[in-house]
Amino acid sequence: MTDTINGAPPLASRHHRRMPEFPIGEPVPTAWREDVLTRAKELDSLRAWLLDTTPADPGDPWWAAIREHLDAVKQAAEGRRGRRARLGRVWASMTGSTIGRALSNLDAAEASLLRVAPDSYLAGQMPSLRNHVQRHLEPDDPRRRELERLADRLGGSDALAAPAELSAITDQERNAIVSSVRAASKAALREQLRVRSFRNVLLATSMVMTLLAVGVAVLGFINPAAVPLCFQPERSGQTVVVCPTQQSALLETGQESGPAAPDVDDVVKRTAGRADLLVVELIGLTAAAVAAATALRGIRGSSEPYGLPVALATLKLPMGAVTAFLGLLLMRGQFVPGLSALDTSAQILAWALVFGYAQQLFTRLVDQQAHSVLNTVREKKVGA
Asked: Are 347 and 376 in contact (CB under 8 A)?
């Protein structure tokens, strides 16, 4: 008794079955690695099935090429173990070399499989191939138009009613299909690389802003009087020095004029505390965290492997700390008329909270650019 599966030739007789050449291994740490390993195992099983069920020549170089590409996918997804390997994975994550190796070899294995697969399999894959090409190639691309023409012929009602027509797929048409699929796969990989590049810019900016915030806090701890965020409000001829964590006693100004009198400067140096800048930045960071949590309502989930939404949230935290410090510094320099003499430490911290949340005004433009980058990856270009 012979079986026919999806129009394929009857199962050829075998005295023994080959053991799996691509065993399913242990779980890997990230989702994209599991995804590519699962797809690679599926392609390897399909390769073995086609070799067993079709009169294919096992000596054809394309079959060996498929296997080599799948081995490269497995090596990239599983990676090496050990401390040095972990450091290498961090660097590879930044450069995208590991993901690029896995995805490009996976695409190459799929394209090679299309070159040697029987006509029945190729015709059955045409709807999926058409969708893939339409997602990543422009409507006026000649490769997309040619594949759409072939998909209409092979996937239409006439082809389903007359399976004999499937044998009419010529080598030229097969090459055109493979060329279109490869072009779409390369375009999809370039889209992923654009996301990675934008993610790396965000991470580098976050690192720089974090170093700046830490540097400001260290400067305030070492020399509190270097950049004091203190104010000198006047009340009925008396002046008090107000800093973020403490304030001085009332000073009799007498006949001295101006807030820069020497005695006031000395009091500022004595009143400024080591934790002033640190407290201001922590308040700004807390406000930025609230802003980041609020902004999550506008973030859609992403299937790309580069964690762009996480990088966006990471950028907001040091930005909040820095904007809180810079905002109070502008107020102390009387840059904002009418807000140059805060009365209490609580008012200073309240304005730090406002300025920390105000980082959303700057990072909102970055959020919009990130959404635009993600939309270029998710967009379905199905219009003719």
From this structure: no
Cα angle value 314/303/196 (rounded, 5°)? 55
State both tokens at 47: 């390769």
pLDDT digits (tens, 9 = 90+) for 67-116: 999 998 888 888 765 444 555 555 555 566 788 888 899 999 999 999 88
pLDDT tens per residue, range 331-353: 888 776 666 667 788 888 999 99
Backbone angles phi, psi at 231, to 5 degrees: -125, 155
HEC secondary structure over the chain: CCCCCCCCCCCCCCCCCCCCCCCCCCCCCCHHHHHHHHHHHHHHHHHHHHHHHCCCCCCCHHHHHHHHHHHHHHHHHHCCCCHHHHHHHHHHHHHCHHHHHHHHHHHHHHHHHHHHCCHHHHHHHHHHHHHHHHHHCCCCCHHHHHHHHHHHHHHCHHHHHCHHHHHHCCHHHHHHHHHHHHHHHHHHHHHHHHHHHHHHHHHHHHHHHHHHHHHHHHHHHHCCCCCCCCECCEECCEECCECCCCECCCEECCCCCCCCCHHHHHHHHHHCCCCHHHHHHHHHHHHHHHHHHHHHHHCCCCCCCCCHHHHHHHHHHHHHHHHHHHHHHHHHCCCCCCCCCCCCHHHHHHHHHHHHHCHHHHHHHHHHHHHHHHHHHHCCCCCC
> For position 155, what pLDDT does the model report?
65
Length of the chain: 384
Using 50, 70 and 90 to split pLDDT, how confident is the model at 323? very high
Share of the chain above pLDDT 90, in %: 21
Whether 157 has a pLDDT exceeding 70, the answer reads no
